């Protein structure tokens, strides 16, 4: 099989490329793109200062404390990716999502989840999901809402809280 990897942050993308080059015989492609909902060509990536270099977000409201990092990044939708796979007559055996608060619009806007066999995803809950990130027709931006949506799409679910959610906690 082939691995398709998408990374919004330029620094993490460089590390991703280095890691993929180090794996002999692995069929993998890396793309410096942010996966997002349809209808947006460019978003701005905000992240932690360089000494963290671990995460950030493309959500417009996600201004991370102690940084002024706002880097334009080209976006694509999950369905654009799945359409390429589908045209090749293939399925996605495993879809891994770690999108730092963007998992809801990515999944809620997809109409092609039927070609995905399995999803592993980190999910964040925040007290109030921003209007500009919402997908028309969806009102539940909680882990339970996402779980229920995926169940309706035919996925069997298991999940685990890595940390107990608490008021105001976003992660």
**Unreliable parts:** none
How would you name the oligomeric state of the polypeptide chains in this document?
single chain
Structural class designation: alpha/beta
Outline? globular
Number of strands: 8
Strand numbers in spatial order across the main sheet? 3-6-4-5
- Tell me, rounded to a whole number, the average pLDDT: 83
Task: Report how far apart the termini are.
Answer: 32 Å
Order of helices and strands: EHEEEEEHEHEH
Please count the helical segments: 4
Describe the structure.
There is one protein chain. By secondary structure, this protein is α/β, with parallel strands linked by helices. Helix content is 22%, strand content 19%. It has four helices and eight strands; from the N terminus they run βαβββββαβαβα. It has helices at 10-21, 78-87, 103-108, 143-152, and strands at 3-6, 28-31, 34-36, 42-47, 56-57, 71-77, 95-97, 119-121. It has a four-stranded mixed β-sheet. A two-stranded parallel ribbon has the order 1-2. Strand 4 (42-47) and strand 5 form a beta hairpin. The longest helix is centred in the first third of the chain and has 12 residues, at 10-21. The protein is globular and about 45 Å long. 22% of the residues are buried. The model has no long low-confidence stretch (mean pLDDT 83).
């Amino acid at each position: 099989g082939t691995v398709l990897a998408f990374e919004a942050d330029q620094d993490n993308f460089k590390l991703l490329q280095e890691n993929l080059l180090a794996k002999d015989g692995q069929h993998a492609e890396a793309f410096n793109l942010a996966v997002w909902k349809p209808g947006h060509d460019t978003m701005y990536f905000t992240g932690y200062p360089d000494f963290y270099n671990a995460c950030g977000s493309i959500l417009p409201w996600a201004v991370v404390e102690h940084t002024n990092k706002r880097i334009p990044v080209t976006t694509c939708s999950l369905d654009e990716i799945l359409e390429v796979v589908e045209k090749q007559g293939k399925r996605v055996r495993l879809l891994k999502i770690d999108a730092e608060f963007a998992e809801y619009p990515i999944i809620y806007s997809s109409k092609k989840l039927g070609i995905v066999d399995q999803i592993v995803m980190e999910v964040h809950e925040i007290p109030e999901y921003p209007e500009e990130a919402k997908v028309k027709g969806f009102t539940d931006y909680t882990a339970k809402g996402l779980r229920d949506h995926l169940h309706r799409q035919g996925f069997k679910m298991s999940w685990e809280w890595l940390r107990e959610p608490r008021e105001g906690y976003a992660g």
